[in-house]
Every structure is written in C-alpha cells, then in structure tokens.
Amino acid sequence: MTVNPAIASPSDLVKNLEAELRVFQDFIQVLQTEQDTLVQGNVDPLLELARIKSEKVVLLSQLAESRARFLSAQGYSQEHGGMTKWMQQQRDGGNPQIAKLWQQLLTLAENAQQLNQINGGMIDTRLRNNQQALAILQVAANQSALYGPDGQTQALGLGRPIGKV
After folding, report:
1. How many of the other CB atoms lie within 10 Å of CB of 16?
2. Which pairs count as long-range contacts for 21-27, CB under 8 Å and 24+ apart, including other chains?
3. Residue 144 has what pLDDT?
4. Which class for 7: exposed (0-12), middle (13-18), buried (19 or more C-beta within 10 A)?
5. What is the pLDDT of residue 135?
6. Fewer CB near the terminus (10 Å): N or C of the chain?
7. b/e for 137-160, b at 16 or more Cβ within 10 A?
8. Which of helix, strand or coil describes residue 81?
9. Orientation of helix 80-90 relative to helix 46-73, angle to 10°
C-alpha cells in the first residue's frame, strides 16, 4: 500500500481515512492472531507476527502523518482535537462520511490498544515464568556438581551435612 503524502482535499482525506481503517483492521487481525498464539502456547510464530505488526505500525504512522499535515495546512492542530474541530467547521458543507470514518477509526484504535495491552501482559507473564524455570534449572545444575574446585567430591544438596552444627 502506498501512502499519499499530500492530502489536498476532503475527498483525499476520505481516501486516507479509508486506508487507515483497512490497515487498522489488518493490525487488529494480527493482534488477535498473536493472542491466539499466546493462549495456545505456541511461541514459534511470534517473531513473524512481531515483524508484521511493526510493518502495520509504520504504515499507520505514515497515514496519520499525512492526515496531520492536512490538518496543519488547514490551520488546525495535528492532535485528536484538531480533527474534531476541523469536522465541526465542515458540518455545514462538509462530508458526513468523514465523521463516520473518523469515529470508526477511533473505535478501532481503542480496540487495538486494548488487545495490545492484553497481549503484552500475556507475554510478560510467559517471560516471568520462563525466567523462573531457568532459575530453577540453574540451581539444580549447580547442585548436581560432583567435584568441587579442589577436585574433591561434594555432597549433593544445599543443606548441612548430617552431624554438623
């Protein structure tokens, strides 16, 4: 998908918003696939999903930047409030499709944020579990040493030898 860097009219803005919606829908699909993958415990596809997510985020950023430049050229803030103010000024002769697309875009963005937070929490939990398992394995590996640094055999375990205080 190519991004139109220069939005010159409301009809160009409609095309840009439609493109943003499509990319957000794709992004949400990737997030849902990531979540399903995490729930199933299958970590193999996660690297590829991260790559695809990154591509979608770059594309979304480019589309948002085009929209922000348009708003700035119209004398409005590039922030969320700028789009709202621009739409309010356009109500009399404006395009009602823009307001509908904008609302859909905001809804999808909120949905994507929620999915991403849930997935991040799941990844964090899995990472902590893996770190705990690794720590247990490292302790077990240290306990199983048969010979000490002096070449003498050592007892297995962490406790005191029987009969010692």
Report:
1. 19
2. 21/101, 21/104, 21/105, 21/108, 23/56, 23/59, 23/60, 23/63, 24/60, 24/105, 24/108, 24/109, 24/112, 25/108, 26/56, 27/53, 27/56, 27/57, 27/60, 27/112
3. 57
4. buried
5. 83
6. C
7. eeeeeeeeeeeeeeeeeeeeeeee
8. helix
9. 50
What is the tens place of the pLDDT at every residue in 51-67? 999 999 999 999 999 99
In a 10 Å sphere around its CB, with 0-12 CB exposed, 13-18 middle and 19+ buried, how is residue 126 labelled? middle
Q: Could you tell me how many residues make up the chain? A: 165
CA nearest 71: which of 57, 54, 85, 92? 85
Mind listing the pLDDT tens digit for each residue in 99-145?
Answer: 899 999 999 999 999 999 999 999 898 888 888 888 888 777 776 55
Alpha helices in the chain (DSSP H): 10-40, 46-73, 80-90, 96-143
Q: Are 58 and 23 in contact (CB under 8 A)?
A: no
